[in-house]
Known about the structure:
Layout: H1 3-10, E1 14-17, H2 30-33, E2 38-40, E3 47-51, E4 54-55, H3 57-60, E5 79-81, H4 87-95, E6 103-110, E7 116-128, E8 140-152, E9 158-165, E10 168-173, E11 187-190, E12 197-198, E13 202-205, E14 210-213, E15 224-227, E16 243-244, H5 272-280, E17 298-303, E18 309-314, E19 326-332, E20 341-346, E21 351-356, E22 365-372, E23 382-386
Parallel strand pairs: 1-11, 3-4, 5-16, 6-15
Antiparallel strand pairs: 2-3, 2-5, 6-7, 7-8, 8-9, 9-10, 11-12, 13-14, 17-18, 18-21, 19-20, 19-22, 22-23
Amino acid sequence: MSDAAQLLERHQPYLKYDSQEAFFADAAEIFVESPGMRLRRKGSSADVAVAGDALSLAFLATDPDPYPGTALKPAATDTVGVPDKDYRARAAALHVQPELRNVCYGHVIADRDGARWLQYWYFYFYNDYNLIGRVIKAGLHEGDWETVQVRLNAADEPDYAVYAQHSHAAGRPWDQVERVPATQRPVVYVARGSHAAYFEPGTKWTGVWFDYADGKRQSPERQRLVEIVKGDAAVRWVRWPGRWGDTPKGPLPQDADSPRSPGSHTQWLDPLALLDVAATAAPALVPADRPAPPAAPGVTLTRLAGGDARLDWTVVPGADGTLPTALTITINSKDEPAPPRTFNKAIDGTGGSVALEGLDPANRYDVFVSDVSTDGIASESVRRDLA
């Protein structure tokens, strides 16, 4: 193992997911191996390549040469897109494959002052910022690249960390960063759906809307680390100039285009660029009239004959007398390879029941439930377990 790889392993972040997260940091291959995934050029409905027929990371790793078997050179307007838009089902089917799930890409780069930085890049199949009961359709896009940076001092020990958060970033001296006990690994709280990285758990005002990063999901101890080494032809895809997804930026402030490759970001070769963003970012001031979150729902679970379950719920009105309008429900089992399954249920009263189907009577399940107000504010999630 190289010196760089050892440093990357030693200080690899511990990602703590939100209790109702539906997408997880997986291998970049998920975006070129899922059936039907297609590479297209802007303005054309013809496929340059599709999954199962030429499309692969190696196919993308040709810039500045043409794509294999074509006269087309990779362009910034190229996209790899999801044909059926069934993001959760596709991501879940890919996540169960051991070689694809829980992956982190590591990159070591010196800044203009000579200090070395450890960069950790994470790929998510979908940016599901619409995480609050489908009340607000905003901030949704295919593909999501996120990053965490750790700066090393002259003794190769960490002295600063920078976490990316949407178009912003936050930085802290190392002695103010939470770490895994008895290690030098930073703890990162991953926001539900948006995958922004935070130093502490909680509800975060982004300047546009709220991120939820409760850290309650039992998360993998670490991701499989893939070191990105300059000159390695096998990882040239990291500089592919196109977009990972074909989602265009919408009209709302939360909206964004599908992301570009890590190597297309300024901080890939200039890690101080992200530090500068963190140093100059103004605090996102929470509006004085910020709506209050609703009270968490009352929840009970009952096993039914055959192994399925019934979820009984109750909600209470807010201070203005209005009731929550939806529940967000996440079902997970440590006894199954599938990732947690999250769905939303519209409600129009103070109580009711939801059938939880497709459960194995031999398996244990943990279920997290939150509710959402008419303002689009989510409550804390509550956990219930099926033995």
